[in-house]
Design brief:
The chain has five helices and no strands. 80% of the residues lie in helices and 0% in strands. The protein has 147 residues and is an all-alpha fold.
Length: 147
């Protein structure tokens, strides 16, 4: 008898497409707060430790992602409580992993808390590719999605 893990289908194009759309919305929300925070410290030159800026960027990225996802769900006629609960519950692991990888990529490539035109696409791609398989799995296994 096969276990559930050996029969899981990773080859569903429809689910990959839907999970890619969900991941892109999550990435948009996360990057607004993350990049906004890094950009603020970059232009103001406020002396703040790189690690602290990156932690603050992750927190702000999570907050803006939750806000964006809640607004999307409200437009789909969810009640506010249900929209917020759904945004918090379904994609928080995805958001955290996305944020951590984006900031680690920034740190590895620039020394951290530095935005420029060449690093942003790499950070976005790294964050997207980190979260996408989890979002596929979550959608396929539990039929759960944020959007």
């Amino acid at each position: 008898m096969k276990s559930d893990s050996s029969t899981f289908n990773w080859h569903c194009n429809t689910t990959w497409n839907k999970s890619a759309k969900n991941t892109a919305w999550c990435l948009l929300g996360c990057s607004i707060g993350d990049f906004g925070t890094i950009f603020f410290f970059q232009i103001t030159k406020i002396p703040f430790p790189v690690l602290s800026i990156m932690i603050l960027a992750i927190i702000n990225g999570l907050i803006t992602s939750i806000i964006l996802e809640t607004l999307i769900l409200l437009r789909q006629k969810f009640s506010f409580d249900n929209a917020l609960k759904t945004a918090l519950g379904m994609s928080f692991i995805s958001m955290i992993s996305m944020e951590i990888v984006m900031n680690l990529t920034d740190y590895y490539l620039t020394g951290g808390a530095v935005l420029n035109f060449w690093v942003i696409p790499i950070m976005l791609l790294a964050g997207f590719l980190t979260a996408w398989p989890y979002n596929y799995w979550r959608l396929k296994k539990h039929n759960q999605t944020c959007h």
